[in-house]
């Protein structure tokens, strides 16, 4: 059984995988002040709640966009499980051809998403990852990573709006029932969610126009299941497990 962990700026996604099947997926808050013991406790809670015996885990893999936390989480895994931990980075085989100006600059999460995408969906494809930032990655018909777009995520937009205004409150990201709000909370929520949905529609259309081809479109990330249904583009697949699938593929490519 494999423990897969993706460290993002806002959340850490973790899950256990056995025979290519995902047993569970959980999210915990990213806290750069937390110790390895605190993260080990979070791992323990997640596994106990999902009925997973840590003794059955024989390997672990981490992808991270928060370098200051990578070693802390690695030590937490080693402390609680005792398994060897693989980290996605230089020297790791992904099978992905990266055609951007500086391949070393590609975030590990985007590379992992792309690895899962080319193994499960039809290329060319656009992969949308809705985390702290909303990213769109283009994988061409030859399954090469061509580049993409980085936009402000819904959560960051909400924080900026609240912090820069005197009277606007924080809101939850429940799916709106209609676009025209009739109170302040609904107006804010609708603006945040629908503006992201409209941006995704527009970006997908323009990327396809520039590429000269229609693409498969796959979305993942914490708010994908809320925002994507608000998009006018039809056929966008929401895959909440894309990162975990990619980590599993990369681990199997590199395990001794």
Notable features of this structure?
11 strands; 5-stranded mixed sheet; 2 domains; Nucleotidyltransferase, domain 5; globular; about 260 residues; 6-stranded mixed sheet; alpha/beta
Describe the overall structure:
This protein is an alpha/beta fold and 256 residues long. The chain folds into 2 domains: 2-87, Nucleotidyltransferase, domain 5; 97-242, ATPase, nucleotide binding domain (Nucleotidyltransferase, domain 5). Helix content is 38%, strand content 25%. It has a 6-stranded mixed beta sheet, sandwiched between helices. Strands 3-2-1-4-5 form a 5-stranded mixed beta sheet, with helices on both faces. Strand 2 (11-18) and strand 3 form a beta hairpin. Helix 1 packs across helix 2 and helix 3 (108-120) packs across helix 7 (242-254). The longest helix has 28 residues, at 184-211. The radius of gyration is 19 Å and the shape is globular.
Topology readout:
Elements (H helix, E strand, L loop, with lengths): L1 E6 L3 E8 L2 E9 L6 H14 L9 E6 L2 H14 L4 E3 L9 E2 L9 H13 L4 E6 L2 E7 L4 E9 L1 H10 L20 H28 L4 E6 L2 H4 L9 E2 L3 H13 L2
Helix pairs in contact: 1-2, 3-7
Summarize the structure.
The chain contains 7 helices and 11 strands. It is α/β, with parallel strands linked by helices and 256 residues long. The chain folds into 2 domains: 86 residues, 2-Layer Sandwich (Nucleotidyltransferase, domain 5); 146 residues, Nucleotidyltransferase, domain 5.
């Amino acid at each position: 059984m494999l423990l897969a962990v993706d460290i993002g700026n806002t959340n850490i996604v973790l899950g256990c995988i056995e025979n290519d099947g995902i047993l569970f997926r959980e999210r915990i808050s990213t806290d750069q002040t937390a110790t390895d013991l605190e993260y080990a406790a979070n791992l323990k809670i997640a596994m106990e709640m999902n009925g997973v015996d840590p003794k059955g885990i024989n390997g672990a893999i981490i992808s991270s966009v928060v370098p200051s936390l990578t070693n802390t989480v690695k030590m937490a895994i080693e402390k609680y499980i005792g398994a060897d931990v693989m980290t996605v980075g230089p020297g790791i085989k992904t099978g992905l051809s990266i055609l951007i100006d500086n391949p070393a600059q590609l975030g590990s999460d985007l590379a992992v998403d792309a690895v899962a995408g080319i193994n499960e969906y039809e290329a060319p494809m656009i992969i949308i990852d809705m985390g702290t930032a909303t990213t769109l990655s283009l994988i061409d018909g030859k399954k090469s990573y061509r580049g993409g777009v980085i936009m402000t995520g819904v959560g960051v937009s909400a924080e900026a709006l609240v912090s820069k205004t005197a009277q606007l409150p924080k809101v939850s990201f429940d799916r709106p029932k209609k676009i025209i709000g009739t109170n302040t909370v609904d107006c804010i929520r609708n603006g945040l969610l629908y503006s992201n949905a409209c941006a995704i529609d527009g970006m997908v259309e323009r990327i396809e126009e520039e590429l000269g081809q229609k693409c498969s479109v796959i979305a993942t990330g914490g708010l994908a299941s809320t925002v994507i249904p608000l998009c006018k583009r039809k056929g966008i697949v929401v895959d909440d497990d894309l990162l975990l699938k990619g980590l599993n593929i990369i681990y199997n490519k590199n395990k001794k």
